[in-house]
Amino acid sequence: PLLVSAHESSCIRLWSIQGNLMKELLPFSGRPSGPLTTLCTDSFIKILLTGSKEGYVFRWNMASFLKDSRNRKNEIKEQLCWRAHATEVVDLLIEEEKNVVVTASIDGSVRLWHARTGYYFGYFGQARKFELTDTSRLILPSDVSDFSAIIKEEDKRLKKKKVIYPLMLDREK
């Protein structure tokens, strides 16, 4: 058993059932995540989704960590980030059979997204039917202008370069 909590500091904490802190996570995507407002997992607890006050949804892969949480090589990896709403995300749901994420916002909208890519399918109440098989059309809701961002592992390992800028007085300048 595992407990997961989302916090105003954008931090996600994983706890053992005994109350011991096992892991702390922060979104890496570079997007302004803001306070986290909601989270959910799939039925196998391999995928964790978090929603933020800024309208972003983050997808995390927890599968390798849950196999052996004591092995430091088994990390929880942020896989995807997308702007789902212009305002706060208040609820999330993963529909595994159709591979769809449902998001709800304080603006009153409920939207459908592809679970693996973050592609927008539409909103509840639209005139046209949802086309859940076509992920080739890149469309966005009218109030969102950011496409989904796939988080690559190479991004996390930025090499720090040591640069020396000596302060020297140049009288000629």
UniProtKB/TrEMBL annotation:
WD repeats lie at residues 82-118. Residues 34-114 form the IP5PC-F beta-propeller domain. InterPro entries: Beta-prop_IP5PC_F, WD-EF-hand_domain, WD40/YVTN_repeat-like_dom_sf, WD40_repeat_dom_sf, WD40_rpt. SMART domains: WD40. It comes from the Eukaryota. Pfam families: Beta-prop_IP5PC_F (PF23754). This is WDR64 protein.
